[in-house]
Design a protein that fits this description.
Order of helices and strands: EHEHEHEHEHEHEHEHEHEHEHEHEHHH
Number of strands: 13
CATH class of the largest domain: Alpha Beta
CATH topology of the largest domain: Rossmann fold
Distance between the termini: 11 Å
Radius of gyration: 21 Å
CATH superfamily of the largest domain: Glycogen Phosphorylase B
CATH architecture of the largest domain: 3-Layer(aba) Sandwich
Largest sheet: 7 strands, parallel
Strand order of the largest sheet: 3-2-1-4-5-6-7
Structural class: alpha/beta
Number of helices: 15
Shape: globular
Strand content: 15-25%
Length: 383
Amino acid sequence: MSSRRPRVLHVATTDMSLELLLRPQFEAFIEAGYEIITASAAGRYVASLEAAGIRHIALDNATREMDPRRDAKTVREMVRLFRRERPDIVHTHNPKPGWFGRVTARAAGVKGVVNTVHGLYATTTDSRSRRAVIYGLERAASAFSDVELVQNPEDVRILRRLGIPAHKLVTLGNGIDLGRFVVPTPERRAHARQELGLADDEIAIGAVGRLVWEKGLRQVFDAAGQLPWRVENARVLVIGPLDPAKPDGLGPRDLARIESESGVRFLGERTDMELVYHALDIYALASHREGFPRAAMEAAASGVPVVASDIRGSRQVVEHGRTGLLFPVRDACELAEAITRLSKDPRRRAEMGAAARQKAEREFDQRRVIDLTLATYEELLAR
């Protein structure tokens, strides 16, 4: 090794993932003495990354969709990038950078290759052929990595069944800033509700995430349409950005129609999510697929009970009956029923919210994720 700082190059599909999911980790890695470079398709989050001192390199052909021509160009871009930057470690994120990046990093002569499995891109409800393709790609790409950092313990078990060696698999978990997301004082809660225009007697139900149908928004909207007959003072708030690059993304016309039909209120993308959680009585997550949902962890840390679809990822955040409620995935009636039960029982909401915060303190501290990742880097560099 030369006297320069160890160089780690993180590759993701979009700059949104780098900024919203990983930036606190990058800042901690820099503080620990690493040089951090990021690469992805360029977008509006690049400026924020660079303002934080995190260098970003655009991958001109990176896309989340399966596009063989552009994917082939992305592979060539990655090879050139790795040979030019000569990182000590390449760390890949998201499905496609993970599939292509692990192979190309090794082909380019990178000594250390790490991949984070944020959530396997297949579920038990997918067709057998789809699962075979996705699991086959994961198994093949893992042959080129040194370490697989797996957020979800259920995914670890699947990867072991696929034949990935146990010594490569590290259960990473997921984490958030427990100093930012806290249980509010009565004064802070009152301020937050006033900021969002909520009356004292309204029950505020929040859903957070990119506005794509895969997030279970159809079930959220259907449940919202049922609530006026169940809970007179319920108010459903949806927070998150449009994602026009996704084929299942909602558009501006969809929002106007849905607001009219279901009474849902869209707040758009917010940078003050700690305030939003302080205003909520219930957090709803109806996703069809998750790795280890960050927003649900943030809500739990803020003392908000979580109602979530009973899927891999949500089960790691919600202890059914203790910190929130699980309901069958894609079942809007059961989602509405769970929200109704909690809406009518303030004592139970308070008990679940307190238990959710305790669970967050035990299991959702981002410092643990950072320390585990740094230990992985140090072990690779020492080899």
